[in-house]
C-alpha cells in the first residue's frame, strides 16, 4: 500500500511539473509574440489563475494565427484589388486634401474607393429592413449575394430561404455566405435544402477538429447583401426572429441601410473577396459591376477590416475620426470594450471640450461583455464623456456620427473582438444630409435612455464594482 501511495504522490508531482512547465512555455511564447501588452498580461493571468481551463481557453482563442497565415496577407490584399481592377473605368471620387481625412486613410490602408451619387434608406428596426430586403430580392434578375454572421433556421430565416429558393427556380444565381461559429446551432439540413435547390450556400472558415483551435477566434461578422450589383444592404442586423420580435425585455433596436448607386461596388468587392476565401473561385466581370447613373447625392465608402492585414483599419480610422472631431462625436454600440487607443482618444476629445456621447444598452444579451462594458464608464465620465443607457429593449445598433460631416453604419462594435479578430464591414458617409439623419436617430433614441450621472454611478454596490473590475481583466480576450 505504501508503494502505491508513493507512486501516486510521484505521479502527482510529475503532473504539476509538466503542467507548469507547459504554462511557463506558453507564457514565454505569448511574450515573444510582441502583442498588445494589455492582452499579453490578460492571457498570462488567465493561464496562471485558471488552471487547465485557462490552458484550454488559450488553445481555442488565444493563439495568434497571423504568422501562420490563415489567409495570407499578400493574397488577401491582392484579392481585394483584383475585383476592383475590373471596374476602374467606373470613376470613383478623387480624394483631395479638402475632403475628410478618413477618405484618404481608408483608400490607402484597405483599398476602399469613395463613390458619389448614391441613394440611402435607413432602417432602425428588423421588420422594415426584412420587408425592404424581400422587396429587392424579388426584383433580382441575375444574381443575389448574401453574407450574414447569423442566418437562423427560424420563421424569419425560413421565410427568406423560401423566397431565395423561388428566385433560384427562376434562374437567378444565389450565393449565401454564413459564419460557421455564428451558425453553430443551426441544423445543417437548413443549408442543405438551399444547396438542393441550386443555391450555393457556404460557411466561412469552417471550424472542425483538428483545425478547430486555429480558426474559432477569427469570425466573419459582416452583414452584406448585393442584388444584381446595383442595390446593397449593410449594417448590424442578422437574419433571425429576435431581430424582428425583440427580446424578453423589449424590442430589438438596430441600424441597417440600403444603398443604391456605385457604392454597391464596394459591397460587391467585399463579398466576392470573402467568397474566394471559402470557394477558391474569384468572380470578376462587368456583370457584377454594372454601369449606373447617379441615384442620389450621398458620398459613400465601403470599408472592410480583418485580422489578416498589417493594419487595424477600422480601429485606426475610428481613432482618427475621434481625434478629428471639432464639435461632437456620438456613438451607439451594444458592447463597449475599447482598446487603449480608442479609450484615450475618447477621453482626450471630451477633455478638449468636444461633446462626446456614448449610448449602450442598459440590459444586454451577454452578461460577461456587459459587465466588462460597465467597467469603462467611470474613466469615460471623469473625462467628460456623456453616457446614456438605452432602456427600451436591447440596443444592437453600431452607429457613429460627428460634426454633421460624416457618419458610419455597419457591423463593427466598439470592442477588442471587432477591432482585432473579426472580419467587419462598415459604410462611411461623407455628407451633411446623412449625418443629420443619423444624428436625429441618435437623439430620438436618447429620449429612451437613462442619462448616467457620475454620482449615481459611484453609488453602485461594491460587489458590482468588483465583478466589473475582474471581467475587465479579460476584456482583451472577449
UniProtKB/TrEMBL annotation:
The keyword Lipid metabolism applies. It is found in: Cell membrane. It comes from the Bacteria. It is a multi-pass membrane protein. CDD domains: PLDc_CLS_1, PLDc_CLS_2. GO terms for molecular function: cardiolipin synthase activity. It catalyses: 2 a 1,2-diacyl-sn-glycero-3-phospho-(1'-sn-glycerol) = a cardiolipin + glycerol. One of its GO terms (biological process) is cardiolipin biosynthetic process. Catalyzes the reversible phosphatidyl group transfer from one phosphatidylglycerol molecule to another to form cardiolipin (CL) (diphosphatidylglycerol) and glycerol. This is Cardiolipin synthase. It comes from Phocaeicola barnesiae. The lineage of its organism: Bacteria, Pseudomonadati, Bacteroidota, Bacteroidia, Bacteroidales. The gene is cls.
